[in-house]
Amino acid sequence: MSEDVPVTADLPDSPVHTTGLDHVTLVGSNVEDTVEFYRDLLGMPLVLRQPNLDAPHVTHLFFDTGDGRILTFFVEEGRQSNPQPQRTGVGGVHHIAFRFDPARIEEVKQALDDAGHGYNEFDRGIFHSLYTRDHNGLVIELSTDKYVIPDERRGEVLALAQQKRLEDGAEYAEGEHLEAALEELGLDVERAPLPDADSGAGGL
């Protein structure tokens, strides 16, 4: 049963061990709308633009998401954007989440308002999120941790928070589980300055 699948930060006994996320590629609309949302609103530098190697009439845009991980788009001139919500099937992309500095949350919300992108704000237990949509209806989550987690210990911290959740009999991981995990691992417990928000459990 799925409940029997272990949750752990230990490397599995598998033939391939990835060393990180290199890039994710989406089919976008056009250059202008894509750059306007991802560069001009979300602040991702456009670091490479070239023809798609497999279809030279398509333009391939590369954006740096902020930590060297790349988000790319296949776009075409004249292809129209469609802001209506997407209907995502199996194998599709439900949403993409990007991190932001928690100290800038009010600026981020104001920027979304100013750009005409509505959003929902939720306390997700161990993190805090703003949900909006891009110019093609893709759900974009702007997420920030409620506690400071070192990147190189992230999987370890989350796996231990999962253990704490199960021991507590809680349905979802909460701030106290994350705090307990950080303490047990000898890491600083530093809570981010975030406002109160609805839990948002059960859906976007």
What tags apply to this protein structure?
single chain; 204 residues; alpha/beta; 2,3-Dihydroxybiphenyl 1,2-Dioxygenase, domain 1; four-stranded mixed beta sheet; 4 helices; globular
**With helices defined by DSSP (H or I, 4 residues minimum), what is the helix count?**
4
The percentage of residues in β strands lies in 15-25%
The overall average pLDDT, rounded, is: 93
- Total count of strands: 8
Uncertain runs are: none
Query: Helical proportion?
Result: 10-25%
> CATH superfamily of the domain at 21-82, called what?
2,3-Dihydroxybiphenyl 1,2-Dioxygenase, domain 1
Task: Describe it.
With 204 residues, the chain is an alpha/beta fold. It has a domain at 21-82: 2,3-Dihydroxybiphenyl 1,2-Dioxygenase, domain 1 (Roll), CATH 3.10.180.10. It is built from 4 helices and 8 strands. It has helices at 31-41, 105-114, 154-168, 175-184, and strands at 23-27, 46-51, 59-64, 70-75, 95-99, 120-123, 127-133, 139-145. The chain has a 4-stranded mixed sheet with strand order 1-4-3-2, with helices on one face. The chain has a 4-stranded mixed sheet with strand order 5-8-7-6, with no helix packed on it. A hairpin with a 7-residue loop joins β2 and β3. The longest helix has 15 residues, at 154-168. It starts with 22 loop residues before the first strand and ends in a 20-residue tail after the last helix. The model has no long low-confidence stretch (mean pLDDT 93).
